[in-house]
Structures
1.
Amino acid sequence: MSSIVFRLVTIRRHAGRVTSGRAADIVWVAYLLMDAVQQRFTVALDALVEQIKKDRSILAAILCGSLSHDVVWEKSDIDLMLVTIDDKKVESSDLPLYADGLNVHTNLIPRAEFRKVIEGSFDNSFVRALLAKARLLYTQDETIAELCRQAQKIGAHDTKLQLLRAATHALPSIYKAHKWLITRGDLDYTALWILYAATGLAEIEVVSHRLVADREVIPQALKLNPEFFKQIYTDLLNAKKTRKTVQEALDVIDRYMADRAAVLFALIIEHLRDVGEARSSREIDDYFRRHMNVSHVTTACEYLADQQMIGKASLPVRLTKKSTAEVQELAFFYLSDPIRR
Amino acid sequence: MTSSVRKRNATPKQTSRSARTTIAVQGARVHNLKNISVEIPRDRLTVVTGLSGSGKSSLAFDTIYAEGQRRYLESLSSFAKRFIAQVSKPDVDYVFGLSPVISIEQKTLTNNPRSTVGTMTDIASYLNLLYATIGQPHCPRTGEPTPSRSSSQILESILSLPEGTEIELRAPVFPIYGEDLDVLFAEVRKKGCRRMFIDGRAVDLSDRVEPEPSEHDARGSDTEDTAPVNAQMEAVVDRFIVGRKHEKAIKAGIAATLLVGDGLMQVHVGKGASKADAQRFYKESSSATHHLTYGDIGPEFFMFNNPESACRTCGGLGVDKLTHPELLVPDPQRSILGGCFVREAFKYNPDTWDGRMMFSLANALKFPLDSAWKDLPDQARDAILYGIGTNKIVIMTPPDAKVRRADQEGREIGFQGIARRIERWYRHYRQRGEANSRMEAWLDKVMVERTCPDCKGARVRATRLLFTIHSRSIYDLGQLHFDELHEFLGDVKPTGRGADAGRQVLKEIRGRLELLLGIGLDYLSFNRRSGTLSGGESQRIRLSTQIGSGLMGMLYVLDEPSIGLHPKDNVKMIATIERLRDIGNTVLVVEHDEDTIRAADHIVEMGPGPGVHGGRVVVQGRIDEVVRCKASPTGQYLSGKRRIPTPRQRRAGNGKALVVRGARENNLKSIDVTLPLGLLVAITGASGSGKSTLVSEILYKALWKQLVDTRTLPGAHDGVDGIEHVQKVVNIDQAPIGRNSRSNPATYIGFYDTIRDLFTEAPLSVERDYKPGRFSFNVKGGRCEECQGEGVITTQLYFMPDVEVTCATCKGARFNSETLEVTLRGKTIDDVLNMSVEEGVTFFAPEPAISRKIQVLADLGLGYLTLGQSATTLSGGEAQRIKIATELSTLQRSKHTVYILDEPTTGLHLADVERLLESLNRLVDAGHTVLLIEHHLDVIKTADHVIDLGPEGGHAGGEVVATGTPEAIARCKASHTGRFLKAHLAG
């Protein structure tokens, strides 16, 4: 009983720190209604934020991670992003704080850099995803609030880019899975590669729905396409693996990719269509890496060629500076519709 | 040469502690110096002269300069020494009275394409500062005046708006030459900008941006008939609410915007400010139409060597590479099937993609693959090289292909062209910074330089050229010749902001220009690449820089500063050297020029002969003492007792001629020049008048192209007639005959092989079955493996100069003991290589094939050289005479040869010049043509025919002033050469 009273008093005291008077009572009631763990985190966070508000070099506090949009557990940390003033003496840094018995991972980021992360290229999808689901706790600068709202909007081009990245990420695992099934008949190892591919496929699913992919993207995708992910993920984990089930999982993945290939690899197809002639794999790789920060596009090109969506060609190359002999380098070109004669 | 350390036997002599008035050299033994002692007066102009190889440079550079430099470097800390190449101690007992020493040699400083006359003279830095200070900026869109402010001033302007005003900072962006707009958008996005305005239309770069038709063609083209469209684009960098509490954020935003906008920005005033406030703000701080402002413009904004300012296409080089059809198709007589293309560019193979493309193209355009390239229609050649634009061809499999590609057949595809593909690869490697990629070497084979189509040679981005002074951009100023520039800057009177600083900078620039004008370089411009300067021009630029430094108490050592100077400019050069002396320096000049010798306060003549016959001081003192000295060859020439005779009769030639038509490369004014064959012809004219351009860039390359390599590209001209009368062309320059000790006169001229054969026939060789390779120091077997045939061992030390010691195994003989057991008439191979040319003539008398060639060397005055003398120890004049000897020894009367020599008298004493003329006349007497570019009046007067260009240098030159015999030139009043020649012929 005394522990309950003590707890109620503690919560009331925390509420008083956050605000005062009638508002404090409302907050106190809100705390009481929360799950205990969640409560503990929220109380600690609120207290910390109150302290931070007094720091004039901190412009805004943004809550990321589980506490912002998901369920926390006892061993969760609080992930906090603090936007700082722009000053030579203030640099980006990470700082582990301690708030009422809880670990707070704090990332300090100057405002100019914060803006660049939000508005810039979709290179660091992890950070962007983090911010897309984050919650602005407070800000002294209204433009930061606007930027946070922007983070949640992902345009069509960025979506294509994300799809391309996810698809090129998934392809090698899919190939490996096929290889191990065909060459070794190793069901377990094949299943493992399918599970590796599942993350990329889940990203494809989520992004295709114009949603922001979580770190834990597979559960997200399971809700959106339960039938597919049950077959390639849940069943492979839980059910007994037979050649039939593994083969069927691979087949359904192949169909999944093939049905979406024109969308997933739209940027590659468009690029080849625009250049109008064959390009070597090195040139294609280089183009996507330099302009879109997407690597290993050649794998995707080979896939598209297998699907007869682009053509395979070759261009001459010398292996070294001293080489006099010429060999042929893999190249690709846009496949127009065949001319009917 | 091996430097050895000797013990000092005697205590060095020293004068009293009062200030020294001389530089005293005691016991100099470098190279051929015979343990000499000499005194050079301080604060005076001293000329060191003497025959070629007599020891002048050994005294001036290898002893005095080297010791001065060594002593100075010794005083540096060990840390500093790590970054400097250490200098060996010269072989001299002691040198008293040394000052810090600077040498100004003739070597062309650099072939670095980023080095220009402007960067060499540092005036480029001052010009950059001038433009940053008083340059008037203009709008890139309208050309109207646009203000330039510091970021602090921009911040204050923004903060003067009402509190709570919403503003947007935008950066104008421009299409990238040669790239789609997509590339620009990706770049803008990478810089952290998601939103843009394109012609006033807001776009989100995270969505697909579909450009309007007028925007879509914004890419520049490799063909020059497509002009980029000026779509007005701004990237939205940041948004703010005006207020002092956001000052730091706004300041950071301004910096970010200027970065994205490459120095340009725009502030858009939104809600919270009245229209009047907004108008006031725009009026006070931005351009009228588009509200643009330049920010934080410093000198680095104009530097082409700054990656942020350099032209994006050429990287600040001013030139780009483009394929040339003649280089891609060296043999137009061949067909495509027959391999008319350079192999690396294209090789027809029906089983490759390239082969299928070519077959498909041939089918579409209806041209045969087995017709000679030159017979193909223009349209077909154009398409093969430069593509078919946006048209498509149908893919077909050639009938002789082994594999049919049914998946490809019938599909349409574009074709960019072989030449365009190579250019794309070149750009690809350049962008990736793969300067030494596997393709680089052969790309050079098929590509030529052209002016960068983006910056038009300006080297910097277009916005830099929007800053003007009296309507001229920094590039325009760099194109002006020094005399024009000096006049232009004289009219510039800075006013307003930055006027004081501007005046200071102007004063500095004009002062430096005056030095350059004073040294006869009025025809140069700052944009001129350093690699295109002659050795003499580079030297004079450095000279003017030194004078400009205003240093006193220095010792300057100069190497023939008169080289490349017309007599009319020599006067100015001498005045400049005197000025260097007058400001309190000691000047030591190695020279042969008579005017310079006469202007000297003190003369030291080395000799009496070259090589082993030299190395002594023949006479030292004032000019009258030299003239009186009977042992002095220089004195004999100065007094007139000895002279190069003027021919009594001029040759008539063989009746044939080469005619260069419409020569217009560089400053040549589309001139026609007739070169009669079978004569000694001199091309003369003021420095920069176009002599080297006419002879080396046009005539020599045209002949070479016709006779040797069709891929050579001569300078701009209409044609050369009469080439059918010439069978061979040889350019005899002063470049070394080899780069290391493995090259020597015997190997270069080619009689060393015969010597080796002789040794192979020796009884011991036969017994041991030795082959000719046994007697080569380049091949394992006979050479000393300890030193690998070098004769010396070089040890690299960290903080000390490299030490060379004689190989302990072979004692410098270069061969192992077994090989040295073989003798030819009592001489080993090492003995033969150490034999002088004079000795060689006698020794090889029984072998006429060898002795004839060695005799030629002796005739050219090179009797003192050893047969195995390392190429690295030979002077330029010696190297050139060895090349002449090579030609003389292989003279063929049947093949008419044109010999071209550019200032062959460099480094030659008058006595050497006499011998040179004798050898050149032997070539002409054998029926060939010798073409000289010369300033030396004694050489010009002996020519059968003279072609005088000018009348001045640079833009004021490039015309034929007079042609004819030297007497005819002397009569021409318009000719500067004629004026000096007249006096010379009369004297």
2.
Amino acid sequence: MNKTILEVSNVTKNVSSPEGELTIVNDISLSLEEGVFASILGPSGSGKTTLLAIMAGLDLPSRGSVKLLDKEITSLNEDKRAQIRSKDVGFVFQSFHLLPRLSALDNVMMPLEILGAKDAKERALNALDEVGLSKRTGHVPHQLSGGEKQRVAIARAMVKNPSILFADEPTGNLDQSSTDNILDLLLGINQQTKTTLVVVTHDQQLAARSDMVFELQEGKLKC
Amino acid sequence: MLNGILFGLKKFFSEIGSGDMVILFSSLILSVTAISGVGFLSDRFQRSIQEQASIVLGAEMVFRSGAPIDDRYIETAELMDIKTAETISFLTMALSDDGNILSSIKAVSGTYPLVGNVEVVLEGQTKLNLGLKQPLESTVWVEDKILEALNTKPGESITLGNKSFKVAGTLIDFPDRSTGFLSFSPTIIANDFDLEEMGVIQAGSRVVYRQLYSAEASQLESFLADVEDDLNEVRVQKVSDIEGQLGNSVNESSQFANLAALFTILITLVSSMIAARRYAKRHLLNPPLMKVFGASKKFILWSQISQLIMLILMATIIGCSLGFAVQALLESILSPIINRELPPPTARPLWLGFLTACCIVVAACVPYLRVLGRVEPIRLLRKEDTQGSKSEASIYLFSFLVFGLFLFFLFNDPALVGSILFALLGLILLLAGVGYLLIYATKLSPVFGGYGWLMGLRNLSKRSSENLLQVIVFGVSLTFLIVLAETRSDLVNTWRSSLNEDTPNYFFFNIQDYQLKDVKSFFDEEMEVNPKFTPLIRGRLIGASSANDSPIDVGRMMQRESNLTWFSELPENNSIKDGSWWDTEDDENNALISVDAQAAQSMGLSIGDQLEFNVAGENFTVTVKNFREIAWESFSPNFFFVLSPAAAKELPQSYITSLKVNDDSEAVDVFIERFPTITSVDLESALDQIRTVIDTASTAVQYIFVLSLLAGVLTLVASIFSTVEERNKENAVMKAMGAKQSDILKIALAEFGALGLVASITALFVAIGFSAYISIQIFETSYSPNSAIISLGLLGGFLLILLTGIFVVYRALAVPAVQTLRG
């Protein structure tokens, strides 16, 4: 049996709004084992992105706790959570969020430079090679297609060999062909490296390929 | 920390080519260039003063008077082992067979100079002699300008007064160059033994007598303490006075130049803030992205700090290098009025440039860093605007405070800083008011030229706050340039135009009583003119008391040499302000005086007060009969003090006169030859010299204001650039709906053309108002707008804005619409 890599316990997230307090995520508990591919499914506004952010330590819940790699991250400050993310967590965004004036190589090197790794360039080149972009290392983002940008983003997320990879609608801005390529890439990473993969999506096809599906509706897990 | 710094530097160099960074960088360089350029030049002037102060004086201490100074001071000083020398200086005509020229004669004693060197190239030699003292008897050392005018070489003769002298050498330089009336003429150094034979100095002649003293400061202080109670007729000058006086004038000039540079800094601060704001907006998600990948707050902070430091350092190096080039340019412009080589500058202007860059970066960029630092990583997953109006207001306030602190540091004068800010605020409000009205008026413009014109004008009022900013920023620099150009040309033209056909262009003075008849005959027979001769009496005010004998403190006028005269009738261009002119009975019997009204006010005089004068060693008392108002700008001799005939007839006096001489007349040359002891001044030449000084100095200041105009252009570019995404989207949507590129260009033409007109007209209105105020209220001359300057200002401002706007929009048109719409 694989060890538990992520444990979410009774997490609730409330926000203030003109209409009063809104509950975005309502008393959710789940756990993931190492190497699992999990999807978080749900319509727009169901709270899936918020849940993802809490799981990755990018946001704090109003109530409940999250344990990531045996560390209770909800009681840590921003810098301590950043420290965990720097070593063990990768993140892929729907809008790619590549730094526009850095080349593909420099973008992928960034997480290693934050860590102070001496072999950042070498490892970044390898990562780009893994995603099939060894010939585009010097290109800046506006010279890349949408699919290529997302592959750079995936390389950036994977360059430090994280234990868990979070992806927020990674194919949301892509055409079908690129979508298929990206999904294959992510699945390949999950299977080959045993990196735990958590993907937010409203793509049923993607969800069907995952090991576990968590369906959210109005902030609650659907049973 | 090191990782953060390295990452920051990497990011800095990758971003350096982006539009925002180019604008920010250029703004910083421009402001550093302006402040360091001005700083380098004034720093060199200051060092020149410090090095030259004692050389300017020619000694450590000087006694100076318009009358011969008692020899006992020299004797006392020599007993105290103080080195002494004497000089006697005056103006006279130097003559040769081929010409004549008004020259400043410096007759020196055998120990001159005490400080510095007289530099002479002796006859038959080529090398410079530095150790020479006094020229031999009957020989002189003559400046090149005189030799040229007289068509004479060393070894040949010239005439001064009644004596002929051999030119023993060419005078290159000497210490204690004069100020005042002696400084306009080139110099001849003569042996003081030859003075009597020269015969130029008569009773009433205008002469400067100087006794020079050189020793340790303590010895001089001791000597001064011994004699100063007796120094009634004498003015004492010390090295520290000269440093202070010249330093003050340089400080005032530097402050004025710093003011001009200050406007550049202010405008570049605005362009920097616009650029920094856009940069922050575009990079809003970078810090949270770095946090997602594990960057700590310290890492992010150091990466940002390293970028700011690199920005400051590079802007300082480039800006100071350009500043040095600017000061070299200013030095060459000012060379006609700087007569010496300036020493190299200190490092102070570099520090000033560095501090300026720091100020702008802190004021413009640091507030936005705080905004960036507060963005949470969750924002990466949302699409929200994170900058509310509240944070913008606090950003502007912070920037204003930082700028204010910088001003205090620069000028160290709260009153001056307060005045500057107040005046600037007034100008900005004026420009904003006029600009707002004009922008609003564009809404009411009739539609002609079709859709492009209509949309262009709509854009003008749609982006009214950005456009109003343009009007203000551009208007400030354009206003100053126009005001400076208008005032300069107006001032000189007013003087020139007051020289009508009959206005005298030659003055003659030092005409002695015994020469009067012959001089009158000469003018009558040779030139067919009968000019009026005005008596001139050199006297010194030595006491003042009220009608009931209480002493009056008249301030600076006490003990000063003054030019007195006497008239029976009220002089032309004078009117009585208070009291009455002397009637026949007063004419006969009473010793009366008329005083210039402004001078009387500053001395605290009333009608009936008594003034005591000393003329040629004799004291006399006169009663104040009236106060006069004088039209000083007229070209006739005017006097602060006019005596009644009874008071003055018997006093030693010379005469002055003025007349109109035709350009082709040789009569003046003949006159000078016949009357070599009489001094003549060509007024046209004097005016040309004054015009050169005004033209040169104002040209130099205008160059500094050109920097602020460049800063205005930069702010224009920054402002347009900050709306480029919005414009791109609008253009993309219009293209998607069928608009051609030419349609979009027409809209841009209309918008920027209208903006250019609004900005230029606004600046012109304000500039004309300022120029009129300065001419009428300050210079007290009439004002008439200079059509050439106004046309150039209007056209120049209009074209500059139009072309800059079109350039930025044209580049944006190259981006395909689909790319923009896809984001």
